[in-house]
């Protein structure tokens, strides 16, 4: 029971702290004159992934590679099978051909890169550096595409747009001439950013402690807990934003949110975790779960190309596949 409370409390703090961090960081950047496009592609895009980042780093530092790496791989699997499945059940998703060819291909490519790296057994600093450079290159590419006014938005842009749909007015700083927009306003924004980051770090610690305790109590490997409970938990922000986008009949944004999240998870979360705290990749992920992540990434490309939409039937099928996946890795009683 205590472990479950630690997990629940950790998830609440991760989500709340992540939102405070993004809000403060965005307001600081706006006061510094940074363009809204760059803010969306960097601060909002990467900031919404802080729960996954902090959880994986904390787990790696705590010598729990199953949770650290399982969180990354499990989140990507859940994003496609659970989040897209639910969004498609609510509202069939129209698929932009250009966006799928561009971002869908990148999602498959980074999943393949992770699978290849996993064969060497370790996320080391060299891999982390390459992954982070890959993320920088992707963000620069997305920024150029948006500046050119391409009709199909980049997934990184739609990841930020999905988050801002949930916070239509709460992210942005006040007008420079408005009361409180001076040093007091700056101090508030800085307080949001650093306070949110502190809350996220605290929540990540609670989640990791609870996940480790739960695994020991149930006699289940930390890798299984990381791939399922932790991964679903840290993906809650993406789940909420995608479901709200689907309810508002903006299901295409939900697709971009998932594609962007999967790119950020591997290149950003995987890269930062490897750079800060190099960690071994559990044998189970090397042998099975990494290939499942690659398989569902390729499956998404196939499903999305059938009529250039993901309908309710496909959504139900994705959810059923996730149930089958969890059944396949969860040990029998």
What would you note in describing this structure?
There is one protein chain. The protein has 333 residues and is mostly helical. The protein has a single domain (2-329), classed as A middle domain of Talin 1, CATH 1.20.1420.30. The chain is built from 13 helices and four strands. The strands form two sheets. It has a two-stranded antiparallel ribbon. It is globular. The two termini are 19 Å apart. Residues 174-180 have low confidence and may be disordered.
Give a nutshell description of this structure:
The protein is mainly α.
How do the strands of the widest beta sheet line up side by side?
Answer: 1-4
Q: Termini, distance in Å? A: 19 Å
**Total count of domains:** 1
Strand runs, count: 4
Taken from the alpha-carbon principal axes, the silhouette is: globular
